[in-house]
Write a structure and sequence with these properties.
By secondary structure, the protein is α+β, with helices and mostly antiparallel strands. It has helices at residues 3-11, 207-222, 224-233, 236-251, 259-282, 359-362, and strands at 23-24, 26-31, 34-39, 44-49, 52-56, 59-63, 71-73, 79-82, 87-92, 103-106, 111-117, 119-134, 137-139, 143-146, 152-158, 164-168, 173-177, 183-186, 190-194, 203-204, 304-313, 316-326, 328-329, 332-333, 338-349, 355-356, 363-367, 372-374, 377-379, 383-384, 389-399, 405-409, 417-420. The protein folds into two domains: 3-215, Jelly Rolls; 301-420, Immunoglobulin-like (Sandwich), CATH 2.60.40.1240. The relative contact order is 0.09.
Amino acid sequence: MNIQSSALKGEGFVHREAVEDNQSPCRLTLRDGLGGYEVAKEVTISYTIGDVRLVRGGRKRLIEAVPFKKSVRLKDGDRIVTSARSYVFDLSDEPGPLETGTMITAFPNSEFALGIKGLIRSVELVRGLFRIITEKEVITPTAEIRFPEGSSPFWVDVSKDGAVVVASEAAPVEVLHKETKKGVVIGFKQQVTVTEEGILEPCPVDQRLKKAYGIYQALSQSQSKFIFGDMVERGVPQGTEEITRIIEKATGEKQDYDREKHEKWLKEQRDLGEQKFREAVETELPEFKADEEVKPVFKAKPRTVEIDKTVNYAGIEFKVGTLERVQEFKGREAPEGKDFLIVNVEAKNDSQKQVYVFYDEEVRLINEDGENVLLENYQMETSFDTEAEHRGSFVFIVSGEETKFRLQFGKKSLPKVDLDLS
């Protein structure tokens, strides 16, 4: 038994205080003999830094949330405003097992409002920089944001004149111009700028967002100054040592626990959190500036192409909805002169039996020269029960100049079926 590990878990979280009528307590519970915490199912802010104001019913007041001690409960229509060097970290709701939730981080000089009905249903971004995880409605001055693959982290930067930059941290995000409804799908580490005049071509994330992500990581790590600082103040190592002695006396077995090492480690974690706190507060972000040199997207080659064609293979109806051409896929850059071609597919088993498809052997791309392009990656179920439906994608690496392809199904030695993707 590792007493130090168990003691850390057991003493790791402290009671959050309900300081005001709009602030939410946490309940300390025990699970399998270890300490834990259980948060009431509400929309709350768990961590604020600096001057953060809550506007409710026309009245504005200062709020404070401290990690693991007190949180601020929010209501429908609440508006949050951050000043210079001020942050809201871990604003979130508590979804049930069949629901998806929302998490928001707001950077300095930001303003946003929430629509709440049990969970967060909408987020209106007025100005400032935000990191958000959601699939709910996100309202900005000039852009509409949609999430074709569900909830995923993304960034939104809203300037004073209403120009908006949207950046994807992981999964694809669809961004539309509010007025023209022209749009693009951005992928991993891509951003797009939307102005009143139109929507620009996607490009790699800029230095402002890269630096912002570093601040976000520092904010996350800075929470350790609260939890470990509290453990040092409460003398957790001394208490754990006393528990260790009781266990040794009861069992007659020597326990692996070093109070001095434990205390040193706690202080190191506290000091690291303090360092990260200062790093986050003192780091200055470059000023927001929409890149006017980027071409409007409606003059550029579309990165997403509508296909909407269907083919039946082995009793399964494969419908190709769109093609996406990107330079990065899951953190990997395409070779020079080439793109990742993502074929987005819906599939349904129309047969009366279970069907298995081994995509590496049975799916390939045929380019305009008649050459086989092997599957690079796929995200699709291989087993189809009767009437089962699945959505996914096939990924290929293609020449940046090629535009005509056929998607082919079938094992090499057996008859094949083709679907024209041009």
